[in-house]
Amino acid sequence: MKRQLILEDGTFFVGEAFGSMEKKMGEVVFNTGMTGYQEILSDPSYCGQIVTMTYPLIGNYGINRDDFESIEPHIHGLIVKEVCDAPSNWRNEMTLDEYLKIKNIPGLAGIDTRKLTRIIRQYGTLKGILCDLDVSVQEAVDYLKSTNLPNDQVKRVSTKSAYASPGRGHRVVLVDFGMKHGILRELNKRNCDVIVLPYNATAEDVLRLNPDGVMLSNGPGDPKDVPEAIQMIQGILGKVPIFGICLGHQLFALACGADTEKMKFGHRGSNHPVKHLATGKVMMTSQNHGYTVNEQSLKQTRLQVTHVALNDGTIEGLRHLDYPAFTVQYHPEASPGPEDANGLFDEFMAMIEQFQKEGDIIHA
């Protein structure tokens, strides 16, 4: 069957439908990863978005039970050049098409994804709708222009209640703004006693659990749409070590007096070079974000830039000059992507231990 993608600027693409036949609207973005489509589909940070894969063949190793980054996907659509209907992999359990049908996610194949990517790069991310051919392009454009995308993505993807992932090591409170399971896996690997809290947890909720450290997770949307999280971070800053990733990085910056802004088309892929300013070391990173910390706004804060993106010079890491807290814009837990920055979790553990030692000295 045929299906079309209509963009708010009037551009439209006609291709082959796969997955669910439901009509869905979302922000159209692109991801440059060659692999990892299963993790991308299940990454809560893509909530409400229609993702275009720039690599031409997607689905060739199927879907397996192990590579999900959340229980339920929140993506609104997947666009590919060619979808594989006969995957080959020893872990394969179903095709990409079968999975999208089960999860009610529409897919579009057979269009010029290079052209679509160039449009997004030139004009920025655009609203779009995946729909049947009987939908008028002009009617769809009018609808897209008159409809605002929702701003409650974090509320939709965050856990509704607290839960524990027990361990015998450091107690870490993980605030879930749309957490990828990769973050939880890395903390579990270090034997942390993890307690996961919803996005709207207060500073009192966090501190009442007597954590050794607090992790601020990744998540979707504009960080300014989560004011309760900004207040929470301000309430715990200096009282407990903090490590933030992606949206957690942006929320931390806002809590410390900096500002954030929307990027033209964002960073989404598993091949983004990032430079650590203190050592000059360059690492390849996995990224998925549409907002960035404004560099000029840091002048009025006690934050120091630790990492920058080599492609466009945007801020990729911060640390607080007075308190034990650091954040990164990229994903050290990867999934998918390189694991060059995985050691940041060990740095977080070391920061917790140093904070405890200093506390022991003060109270001695």
TrEMBL record:
<dbReference type="GO" id="GO:0006207">
    <property type="term" value="P:'de novo' pyrimidine nucleobase biosynthetic process"/>
</dbReference>
<keyword id="KW-0665">Pyrimidine biosynthesis</keyword>
<keyword id="KW-0055">Arginine biosynthesis</keyword>
<comment type="similarity">
    <text>Belongs to the CarA family.</text>
</comment>
<feature type="domain" description="Carbamoyl-phosphate synthase small subunit N-terminal">
    <location>
        <begin position="1"/>
        <end position="131"/>
    </location>
</feature>
<feature type="binding site">
    <location>
        <position position="221"/>
    </location>
    <ligand>
        <name>L-glutamine</name>
    </ligand>
</feature>
<dbReference type="GO" id="GO:0004088">
    <property type="term" value="F:carbamoyl-phosphate synthase (glutamine-hydrolyzing) activity"/>
</dbReference>
<feature type="active site" description="Nucleophile">
    <location>
        <position position="246"/>
    </location>
</feature>
<comment type="pathway">
    <text>Pyrimidine metabolism; UMP biosynthesis via de novo pathway; (S)-dihydroorotate from bicarbonate: step 1/3.</text>
</comment>
<keyword id="KW-0067">ATP-binding</keyword>
<comment type="pathway">
    <text>Amino-acid biosynthesis; L-arginine biosynthesis; carbamoyl phosphate from bicarbonate: step 1/1.</text>
</comment>
<dbReference type="InterPro" id="IPR050472">
    <property type="entry name" value="Anth_synth/Amidotransfase"/>
</dbReference>
<feature type="region of interest" description="CPSase">
    <location>
        <begin position="1"/>
        <end position="170"/>
    </location>
</feature>
<dbReference type="Pfam" id="PF00117">
    <property type="entry name" value="GATase"/>
</dbReference>
<dbReference type="GO" id="GO:0044205">
    <property type="term" value="P:'de novo' UMP biosynthetic process"/>
</dbReference>
<keyword id="KW-0547">Nucleotide-binding</keyword>
<dbReference type="GO" id="GO:0006541">
    <property type="term" value="P:glutamine metabolic process"/>
</dbReference>
<dbReference type="GO" id="GO:0006526">
    <property type="term" value="P:L-arginine biosynthetic process"/>
</dbReference>
<dbReference type="Pfam" id="PF00988">
    <property type="entry name" value="CPSase_sm_chain"/>
</dbReference>
<dbReference type="GO" id="GO:0004359">
    <property type="term" value="F:glutaminase activity"/>
</dbReference>
<feature type="binding site">
    <location>
        <position position="45"/>
    </location>
    <ligand>
        <name>L-glutamine</name>
    </ligand>
</feature>
<comment type="subunit">
    <text>Composed of two chains; the small (or glutamine) chain promotes the hydrolysis of glutamine to ammonia, which is used by the large (or ammonia) chain to synthesize carbamoyl phosphate. Tetramer of heterodimers (alpha,beta)4.</text>
</comment>
<keyword id="KW-0028">Amino-acid biosynthesis</keyword>
<keyword id="KW-0436">Ligase</keyword>
<dbReference type="InterPro" id="IPR029062">
    <property type="entry name" value="Class_I_gatase-like"/>
</dbReference>
<dbReference type="InterPro" id="IPR002474">
    <property type="entry name" value="CarbamoylP_synth_ssu_N"/>
</dbReference>
<feature type="active site">
    <location>
        <position position="333"/>
    </location>
</feature>
<dbReference type="GO" id="GO:0005524">
    <property type="term" value="F:ATP binding"/>
</dbReference>
<comment type="function">
    <text>Small subunit of the glutamine-dependent carbamoyl phosphate synthetase (CPSase). CPSase catalyzes the formation of carbamoyl phosphate from the ammonia moiety of glutamine, carbonate, and phosphate donated by ATP, constituting the first step of 2 biosynthetic pathways, one leading to arginine and/or urea and the other to pyrimidine nucleotides. The small subunit (glutamine amidotransferase) binds and cleaves glutamine to supply the large subunit with the substrate ammonia.</text>
</comment>
<feature type="binding site">
    <location>
        <position position="290"/>
    </location>
    <ligand>
        <name>L-glutamine</name>
    </ligand>
</feature>
<keyword id="KW-0315">Glutamine amidotransferase</keyword>
<dbReference type="InterPro" id="IPR036480">
    <property type="entry name" value="CarbP_synth_ssu_N_sf"/>
</dbReference>
<feature type="binding site">
    <location>
        <position position="250"/>
    </location>
    <ligand>
        <name>L-glutamine</name>
    </ligand>
</feature>
<feature type="active site">
    <location>
        <position position="331"/>
    </location>
</feature>
<dbReference type="InterPro" id="IPR006274">
    <property type="entry name" value="CarbamoylP_synth_ssu"/>
</dbReference>
<dbReference type="InterPro" id="IPR017926">
    <property type="entry name" value="GATASE"/>
</dbReference>
<feature type="binding site">
    <location>
        <position position="291"/>
    </location>
    <ligand>
        <name>L-glutamine</name>
    </ligand>
</feature>
<feature type="binding site">
    <location>
        <position position="288"/>
    </location>
    <ligand>
        <name>L-glutamine</name>
    </ligand>
</feature>
<feature type="binding site">
    <location>
        <position position="219"/>
    </location>
    <ligand>
        <name>L-glutamine</name>
    </ligand>
</feature>
<dbReference type="InterPro" id="IPR035686">
    <property type="entry name" value="CPSase_GATase1"/>
</dbReference>
<protein>
    <recommendedName>
        <fullName>Carbamoyl phosphate synthase small chain</fullName>
        <ecNumber>6.3.5.5</ecNumber>
    </recommendedName>
</protein>
<feature type="binding site">
    <location>
        <position position="247"/>
    </location>
    <ligand>
        <name>L-glutamine</name>
    </ligand>
</feature>
